[in-house]
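Hey, can you fold this one?
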Amino acid sequence: MAVSLLAAGCNRLERLSIVKPTAERGDWTQVAPDYEVSDKGRTAAPMAAAQLLASAGAAYRAGKMEQAAQQAQAALKADPAMADAHTLLAAIAIENSDQEAAGRHYQQALAIAPGKGAYANNYGTWLCSNGRAAESLSWFDKAVADPEYGTRAAALANAGTCAHRTGQLDLAEAYWRQALALEPTEMQSLAGMANLQFARARYLEARAFAERWLGIAPTDRDALQLASQIELKLGDTDASTRYLQRLQALSPGAINAPRSQ
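Sure. Predicted structure:
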């Protein structure tokens, strides 16, 4: 699902943010809750469900997908309204390359909590990743509309990426700028803006976004490649070469010098 309109670094934009029950941020945004199992106000069934889901999450993080799925299903049996169990089952389905099942679980989570931004972002991400980018945008808007959603910048970044996939470049830019207004270091949006401005021959703006991107991820290969291309367009061959040298140091022998267009 390559973004064909972008220049260098386009694969960075393919990494959408989604709720994934893991302690590692990686290319995803971790917003899964911590499951409190000692709350005295809980009845026995929700407490058991929370315990099962916590165990399922631990099994998932350990790579034990079958065990994680069994425990998540048991959590749902104990508490059918536990939407987070559907989120975990969706993540497991993705690990097992079952996109259809993942989509069903994301929808079921939304059916339980239709106003929750995390679930709307997840479903929008799933739609966009499965060839339905245009349909995904309204779900990202719903995610952002949730005042309790703590990672709205991630949803806006996703919306920008998916708008770009549909060819709506101005809309993509608007989403990315909103994301950066909320979180100036939102890397997916910085990458999107750097690439978009480069594609539009706005090289000074592209440089500014690329420099911010590199400020966060100084060894990012996509960012270094794009920065080199930008400097070449601006006529600074020395700066272009320096970026290439940094890139070469990361991956010797694998870098091609950018060509003027």
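The first helix runs from residue 44 to 61. Let me know if you want another pass with a different chain boundary.
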